[in-house]
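Hello K.,

You asked for the raw outputs rather than the summary table, so here they are, unedited. I folded two proteins back to back in the same session to keep the settings identical. This is the first:
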Amino acid sequence: MYEPPAITIEGKLLNAVDNFKYLGSIVSNDASFDAEITARIAKATAAFGRLSKRLWTNSGIRLDTKIGVYKAAVLTSLLYGCETWTLTKKQLRLLEKFHQTTLRKIARIKWFHKVTNYEVLSRCKISSLQSMIDRARLRWTGHVVRMKDDRIPKALLYGRLATGIPKRGNHNTYLNSVKSTLRECGINCMHLEELASVRDIWRDTVKTGVAGAEEDRIERLIEKRQKRKARADLARLPT
């Protein structure tokens, strides 16, 4: 059962709250990112809406120019601090849904056009949000690995509980997220410190690994769609 901490500063007891904002990000007492993701989507939606009449619906502006502004003005609000996120599948789906919705509005792709999500990304020449988050997470991990051992971020990354027994199950910790991302990108976890020690090598490794993981995800989606269509065509055959 959760018990609020009792913290005093100069004899005054601080109020325990569920959420508070620190450096522009919302921190929750249960380590959940639900409030932060909701706030990020709201800020990105507001940034996108302010440019609707002037940019997105303007047929005289090229698509690549619109995408460039979208990256600079909208995605920066949406993905602020994403290198430290530990997301659930539901939270990632919410972010990807926003990404796809805005891209379809920018590219004027309607639902009846029956364009798949990966085709939208290809037309707009942009990657999925998962790739962007993975890239940011691994780049930040490289920075942490290169830090001195007495730095707090590095101590938190490598730290373990000194006492107590951890609960069983799949814990959605930052270190587990990093390991999962490394596996998806084809990067050996055992070689992390060696690769990250040289900034240029790590940057190229992350770029190549994230691009490969994106291609693998798209191939799986295409294969899954083809199987679904094959089953539908088979069901329509006369018996």
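The second followed immediately with the same parameters:
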Amino acid sequence: MTRLVHLNGLPGIGKSTLARRYAAEHTGVLLCDIDVIRTMIGGWEHDDGNAGRARTAALALMTAYLSTGHDVVLPQLCAREDQLARFVSAAHDGGAEHVHVLLTADHETAVRRFRDRAEDAEDAWTAYATESWDAQGGDEALRVWSSMLDAIPAVRVPSTDPESTYRALLVALGDGV
């Protein structure tokens, strides 16, 4: 069955890295990165409302693509049940299964990895996202979101190093040994 593979987790946990690799190694899989779509909207840095519009556009894209009989991989932080339900609906509307994978690490490791990513990044999105998290409370906000994610039903994959995490993801999806 066609799948919407939703990779969820805190920023810096490895969602986009794994999604890029998964799409590269699975012919026909669409990588739908809502954060990338968001940066394609004119004035995105100054328009807080574009996050919702980007997600709505991505949902339509995913539903249409799934209906062609091909999988979609979605790297997206989402901890609200109403928003998760939108992804489930998009999958079902496209005739696909929604597979929710939560990449996990202990709270402090997740915060450290977020800070490491912010320090090394050269792209505008990462700088923007870091400023946004800091405005919401910084490391404490990340810890709160980490706790929120802990309560969400999902297939859990420990995020360690990229290779081990990718292998664990394949096993979780039934694609690997």
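The chain has a mean pLDDT of 93.

Happy to rerun anything if the numbers look odd on your end.

Regards,
P.
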